[in-house]
């Protein structure tokens, strides 16, 4: 089965990469991944931690997001923003939209019996929306910093691909396991056989740390671009494998962090923050040091969890982590190298 997205020249011109991860879109993908059995090494421990902690309300929300099949777009819209604001938007969904979406899904697959009352019962809707918040608190919130870091590293890699070969190269390399670029059609492995004609909208590419496969989001009620999510790149496999592992609070004085107190290394971290996605050679030029020295400093920063390094062909690309940015923001501008 294949989901085929048909592009025109105008669609290619408007295709872009999301600027930030989308909390409820990530929740949607996390909920789908929770009950399937794929990727046990990466997701097994996460599943075992989360499942016993789910509230009855969380299970209520989860019942509308099956591992395979259709789920209502009003529940997990693919929008950027702060979680509380997005949840408020979900709570404000018109009952007519809820009724329309549930009716469309019911024609394709069974729905829980209680959903027939959802458009007419405010208390039931409150329970569902509270359950969505509970679900996010268990599945996504504890790992959000890591998810943002993975997203940023992947986006940097995709931008580099775009600069090297344009949209054609980007679509061909985004995720060969799930996406096949057969110009002018993007073919996606999918349980649904479907043709989507963009008609000038283009698509929004969204790397995901929780996604186990590529997924197309097409909200017919919104004037937004369809989204194509795909698992983040596995260039840094250790990063991807540990992204859903809760991070212990590090000791106040660890060897890698202490090593950052030198002038040059602080300048290296600052330059990476100001030029995310820079190569080791570019970093060396920015600081005025040799490439081997820049590589050594980047290694220490990476060991301290302050930067990520992805590889594009034979080039190492460096981006700051959320922790690295917080360190710079907390300590103010780093000293200049003397």
The Rg value, from CA coordinates, equals 22 Å
Count every beta strand, where a strand is a DSSP E run of 2 or more residues. 11
Shape estimate = globular
- Count of domains: 3
Can you walk me through this structure?
There is one protein chain. This protein has three domains: 2-16 and 145-242, no CATH class; 23-144, no CATH class; 255-331, Winged helix-like DNA-binding domain superfamily/Winged helix DNA-binding domain (Arc Repressor Mutant, subunit A, Orthogonal Bundle), CATH 1.10.10. It is built from 14 helices and eleven strands. The strands form three sheets. The protein has a four-stranded mixed β-sheet with strand order 3-4-1-5. Strands 2-6-8-7 form a four-stranded mixed β-sheet. Strands 9-11-10 form a three-stranded antiparallel β-sheet, sandwiched between helices. The chain is globular. The chain has helices at residues 9-14, 23-34, 40-50, 56-62, 83-91, 95-106, 122-139, 144-173, 237-242, 255-259, 263-274, 280-287, 291-303, 322-331, and strands at 2-6, 16-17, 179-182, 185-189, 194-197, 204-208, 215-217, 227-231, 278-279, 307-312, 315-320. The longest helix is centred in the middle third of the chain and has 30 residues, at 144-173. With 338 residues, it is of the alpha/beta class. Helix 4 (56-62) crosses helix 7 (122-139).
């Amino acid at each position: 089965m294949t989901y085929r997205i048909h592009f025109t020249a105008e669609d290619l011109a408007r295709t872009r990469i999301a600027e930030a991860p989308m909390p409820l879109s990530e929740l949607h993908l996390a909920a789908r991944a929770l009950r399937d059995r794929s990727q046990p090494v990466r997701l097994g421990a996460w599943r075992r931690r989360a499942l016993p902690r789910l509230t009855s309300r969380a299970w209520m929300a989860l019942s509308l997001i099956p591992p395979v099949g259709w789920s209502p777009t009003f529940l997990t819209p693919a929008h950027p923003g702060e979680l509380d604001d997005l949840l408020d938007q979900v709570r404000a969904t018109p009952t007519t939209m809820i009724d329309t979406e549930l009716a469309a899904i019911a024609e394709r697959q069974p729905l829980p019996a209680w959903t027939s009352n959802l458009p007419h019962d405010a208390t039931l809707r409150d329970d569902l929306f509270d359950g969505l918040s509970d679900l996010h608190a268990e599945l996504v919130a504890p790992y959000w910093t890591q998810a943002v870091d993975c997203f940023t590293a992947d986006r940097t890699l995709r931008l580099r691909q775009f600069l090297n070969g344009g949209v054609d190269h980007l679509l061909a390399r985004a995720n060969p396991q799930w996406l096949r670029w057969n110009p002018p059609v993007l073919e996606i492995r999918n349980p649904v056989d479907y043709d989507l004609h963009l008609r000038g909208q283009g698509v929004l590419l969204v790397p995901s740390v929780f996604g186990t496969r590529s997924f197309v989001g097409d909200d017919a009620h919104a004037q937004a671009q369809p989204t194509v999510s795909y698992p983040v790149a596995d260039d840094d496999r250790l990063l991807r494998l540990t992204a859903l592992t809760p991070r212990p609070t590090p000791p106040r004085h660890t060897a890698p962090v202490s090593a950052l107190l030198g002038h040059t290394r602080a300048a290296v971290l600052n330059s990476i923050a100001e030029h995310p996605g820079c190569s080791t050679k570019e970093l060396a030029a920015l600081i005025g040091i040799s490439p081997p020295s820049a590589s050594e400093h980047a290694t220490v920063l990476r060991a301290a969890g302050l930067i990520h390094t992805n590889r594009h062909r034979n080039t190492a690309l460096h981006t700051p982590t959320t922790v690295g940015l917080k360190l710079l923001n907390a300590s103010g501008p780093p000293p200049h190298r003397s």
